[in-house]
């Protein structure tokens, strides 16, 4: 990695490369006939799909095969660890083990041998997702879901311990003989009972964790379990929280500071107990039916063992980490930089036959720092600062460029298939803003589908065309559109829609190309708004208004590949916009999973 200039950094890379190398929540099971059909269909996959230029350059992924949920991320003795659901035998879901990779900086990664594989009765038929907890003495413990009956997909919770706590790489894990430690008793649906969270310790000395489940036909549930020793667990009399949303997978529950600081809070930190008035809690759940993550911000009553969202409608009108292809996420507290970091999985949007032909499927999103917005209403997210080390030394800068209605401006001077772009827009007037249709006031996705990037508007759509071909036959649009409030008379704060429109991203057949969108809770009355897009060959991650809305999209150009990919600023609205400043960097490749 050329941006690492110090001898210490280079020594670290050498050390990594000399390590011994060996090599959920999305439980889509393919039977033998489906796999055979996918393999046969792979012969007809377009050449551009299997082009190596579509494999991401700086996102986390192993050299081959299927990955899904990030599991048990942690920082231990100077090393970042990421475990993840991995199929060592192919590019579709199945044969899942916990793969394990380590890093000094969350950007350069080397794979170790799998940490957890089916090996005991309690996980013979599956080692699914889970979390890590740091004990009082600083050593980690992993709790994970095992499947111990193949016929009914019976799910239990197991514990794993490091064989040698003095090993900073945590290369070996042991499963005690008393597994499973939590079983689905008392009327719990044993086929919908998984993904234990990081535990937190209460003033009574008991550890607590959540397990996601489904009650009845449609109620998502987060059950609370308590233990003194991580061996004997007792379920609380009532769930921490529940809502009629469908099954809750991969729950996450953690504190955030409510005093305007961007620092993270350790889940079991004494600060949480000592300064409860300055702390809010976040409860995140992955919706099995809808395939997205949503969260609420609220209050945790430690005595009642209950969580109450601040917004009574929070479980209905969902705040999301990401309004695109982002699922089964997991956060952890990073004590080295006193921050909370979010990992999330992005699946492919092509076909299983495409994945078989490529030999790989799935990536992890760029790790994000998360903190509570000063309003206290939502989280803010931003790519970790370490990713900026991949930026080339000579950015392209565009300043004070007016883009008239119907105009587009190419950004030249760099290769943009693998780039980081930051842009600040300024709208001269909001008078042309269209009135928001009340029927779509809570449905950004539907609004974007109806009013895509090519649908001329009042204020917007304006933004970026990324991974665009020379003749614009292919392009992925990331844009804003501003509306007058749906309230009678149009009074109130203007409504900002952020959207990614990949409907023209590829001429390849059989590609899933949904528009993704979210409303951005920002004040644009001064006409100013910002956008950052991380472009990486077959993925576009975008952050609107400083991280108030985020959208990840998978795209598979057939023309706009490698040196043939272009970048444009466009404006399809009636109002002029100004690019106050656009800065674009080519992105270098990190060390990624060498020898795995």
From TrEMBL:
GO terms for biological process: carbohydrate metabolic process; carbohydrate storage; defense response to bacterium; defense response to fungus. Pfam families: Glyco_hydro_32C (PF08244), Glyco_hydro_32N (PF00251). InterPro entries: ConA-like_dom_sf, Fructan_Metab_Enzymes, Glyco_hydro_32, Glyco_hydro_32_AS, Glyco_hydro_32_C, Glyco_hydro_32_N, Glyco_hydro_beta-prop_sf. GO terms for molecular function: beta-fructofuranosidase activity. Residues 59-383 form the Glycosyl hydrolase family 32 N-terminal domain. It catalyses: Hydrolysis of terminal non-reducing beta-D-fructofuranoside residues in beta-D-fructofuranosides. This is beta-fructofuranosidase. The lineage of its organism: Eukaryota, Viridiplantae, Streptophyta, Embryophyta, Tracheophyta. PROSITE patterns: GLYCOSYL_HYDROL_F32. Keywords: Cell wall, Glycoprotein, Glycosidase, Hydrolase, Secreted, Signal. Transmembrane segments: none annotated. It is found in: Secreted, Cell wall. CDD domains: GH32_Fruct1-like. Belongs to the glycosyl hydrolase 32 family. It comes from Oryza meridionalis. Residues 386-586 form the Glycosyl hydrolase family 32 C-terminal domain. Residues 1-25 form the signal peptide. It comes from the Eukaryota. Its EC number is 3.2.1.26. It is an enzyme of class 3 (hydrolase).
């Amino acid at each position: 990695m050329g941006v690492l200039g110090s001898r210490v950094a280079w020594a670290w890379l050498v050390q990594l490369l000399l390590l011994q190398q060996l090599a959920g929540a999305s439980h889509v099971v393919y039977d033998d006939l489906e796999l055979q059909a996918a393999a046969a269909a792979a012969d007809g996959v377009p050449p551009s799909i299997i082009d190596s230029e579509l494999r991401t350059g700086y996102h986390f992924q192993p050299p081959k095969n299927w990955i899904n949920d990030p599991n048990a991320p942690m920082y231990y003795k100077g090393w970042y660890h990421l475990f993840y659901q991995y199929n060592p035998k192919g590019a579709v879901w199945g044969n899942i083990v916990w793969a394990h990779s380590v890093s000094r900086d969350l950007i350069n990664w080397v794979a170790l041998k799998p940490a957890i594989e089916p090996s005991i009765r309690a996980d013979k038929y599956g080692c699914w997702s889970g979390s890590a907890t740091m004990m009082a003495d600083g050593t980690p413990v992993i709790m994970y879901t095992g499947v111990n009956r193949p016929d009914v997909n019976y799910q239990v919770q197991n514990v794993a311990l490091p064989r040698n706590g003095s090993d900073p790489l945590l290369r070996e894990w042991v499963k005690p003989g008393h597994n499973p430690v939590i079983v689905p008793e008392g009327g719990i649906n044993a086929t919908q009972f998984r993904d234990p969270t990081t535990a937190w310790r209460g003033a009574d000395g008991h550890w607590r964790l959540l397990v996601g489940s489904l009650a009845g036909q449609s109620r998502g549930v987060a059950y609370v379990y308590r233990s003194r020793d991580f061996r004997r667990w007792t379920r609380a009399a009532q769930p921490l929280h529940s809502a009629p949303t469908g099954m809750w997978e991969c729950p996450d529950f953690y504190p955030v500071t409510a005093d305007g600081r961007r620092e993270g809070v350790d889940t079991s930190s004494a600060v949480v107990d000592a300064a409860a008035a300055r702390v809010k809690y976040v409860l995140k759940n992955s919706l099995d039916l809808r395939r997205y993550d949503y969260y609420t911000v609220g209050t945790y009553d430690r005595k009642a063992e209950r969580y109450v969202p601040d917004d009574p409608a929070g479980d209905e009108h969902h705040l999301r980490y990401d309004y695109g292809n982002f699922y089964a996420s997991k956060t952890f507290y990073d004590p080295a930089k006193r921050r909370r970091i979010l990992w999330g999985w992005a699946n492919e949007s092509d076909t299983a036959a495409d994945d078989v032909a490529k030999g790989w499927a799935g990536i992890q999103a760029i790790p994000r720092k998360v903190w509570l917005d000063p309003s206290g209403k939502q989280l803010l997210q931003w790519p970790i600062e370490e990713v900026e080390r991949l930026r080339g030394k000579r950015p392209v800068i565009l300043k004070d460029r007016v883009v008239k209605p119907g105009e587009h401006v190419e950004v030249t001077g760099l290769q943009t298939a693998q780039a980081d772009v930051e842009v600040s827009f300024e709208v001269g007037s909001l008078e042309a803003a269209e009135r928001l249709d009340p029927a779509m006031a809570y449905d950004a996705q539907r609004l974007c589908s109806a009013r895509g990037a090519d649908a001329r508007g009042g204020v917007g759509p304006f933004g970026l065309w990324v991974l665009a071909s020379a003749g614009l036959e292919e392009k992925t649009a990331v844009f804003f559109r501003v509306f007058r409030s749906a309230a009678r008379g149009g009074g109130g704060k203007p409504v900002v829609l952020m959207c990614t429109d990949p409907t023209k991203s590829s001429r390849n057949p059989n590609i899933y190309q949904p528009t993704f969108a979210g409303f951005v809770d920002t004040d644009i009355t001064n006409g100013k708004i910002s956008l950052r897009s991380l472009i990486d060959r077959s993925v576009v991650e975008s952050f609107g208004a400083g991280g108030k809305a985020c959208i990840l999209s998978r795209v598979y150009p057939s023309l706009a590949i490698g040196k043939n990919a272009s970048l444009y600023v466009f404006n399809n609205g009636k109002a002029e916009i100004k690019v106050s400043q656009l800065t674009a960097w080519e992105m270098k490749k990190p060390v990624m999973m060498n020898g795995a």
